[in-house]
Amino acid sequence: MNSKRNKKLEKLDKKYLWHPFTQMREWEKETPLIIERGEGNYLIDTYGKKYLDGISSLWVNVHGHRNKEIDNTIKAQIDKISHSTLLGLGNVPSIELAAELVKIAPKGLTKVFYSDNGSTAVEIALKMAFQYWRQKERGKKTKFVAFTGAYHGDTFGSMSVGEIDVFVEKYKPLLFPVYKAYYPYCYRCPVNKNYPDCKIACIKKFEEILENHHKEIAACIIEPVVQCAAGMIVAPHGFLKKIRQICTRYNILLIADEVATGFGRTGKMFACEYEDVTPDFLCLAKGITGGYLPLAATLTTEKIYKAFLGEYKELKTFFHGHTYTGNPLGCTAAIANLKIFQEEKTLQKLKSKIRVLADLLKDCKNLPHVGDVRQKGFIAGIELVVDKKTKEPYSVEQRIAHKVCREAREYGLIIRPLGNVIVIMPQLSIAMAEIKKMINIIYQCIESAIGK
Ligand SMILES: *Cc1c(COP(=O)(O)O)cnc(C)c1O
Question: Which of 152, 154, 283 to mutate to test the pocket of ligand 1 (most atoms within 8 A of CB)?
Fold first, then answer.
């Protein structure tokens, strides 16, 4: 192990890097963990220490690191071309991938617009929805509806429809106003009821907003079935379907942000499938390339696409495009990712792993400071509370979930919290024994960080 080089890297990281979502003063005080290699479900640091990747390298990796199929596909594409533009030209992998995406997406989504991250996939859907109505109804429908706890990215448009205060509060003066409906956070019900007796009463607010303002509303944006960044909030079955029905009734477009939930994470290829819903826009990123390269796609319908057709001078064109749009390496990785789903029957094999994860999580629920355990497929969250009876949350300064995650690192597991929620989002390729190991470590670290 090259300890001199490692020390130098640690020094240079602190000297030159500014890390995302990170208080850099804290970062500067600690020795950074620097990843050098990956191997299947493991990350390996510069000292050769191995860690189980419990959050799929931030919700992106699907079939493991250094997957042979994806590695080789990318290498073969490099020997042809690494990048060529989609502005005025086509490229082979972007065409082949678009056809594959349409095949697996909810029925009716037939057009693919590429970009390179989740935030832009969302921006594109927002802009398309907005422009669609400008061209249809001379711009009367200009507003959006979003949900409490929503996270759609870090650009201004996606922040406007987002609602996690610590992320967006400072920028409020620059954000456009958005109607906010309740997302069904059942553990802390926004209308103080209990599921299922409530019959999903929190949806009323959404219905009222549309009833009163539908003439000015262009679209609704939702994270279908699970809000991830809000702390793995799982919506009860039926919520999404109702949202779709109400949108249709009031002639409002539905944007499904499946940036986090897409590509098998919930146990199905897309979360929309759970409720047989076709949105007007489907935003995809994170897992699309198997967690290899930055690529995103916004899928939409013929109806939307056609509203942008016209003579050039009518200026109905969608004037939007990122430089690396449809990057061949990214598209090729995505094609390989989908091929593995098919060849290895990833989703079928996942079923028994999801059950094992559910069983193991039950034990965690019994820990004295675990208020709620939520799971949908391979997405899970453990919400820590001071008092189980009152559901009193830990204060932000206590950073309790952060402590648990730091401790887990000592046992060879990388996880990352969201507020008071411990996030579990392993790769779909994780082995049974590794699931057990992961939950064991988390259980022990909760005990030792908070006490029994
Ligand atoms: C991560 C995420 C985004 C933003 O994606 P980036 O690639 O980080 O820009 C948007 N929506 C959801 C639901 C996400 O989880």
Answer: 152
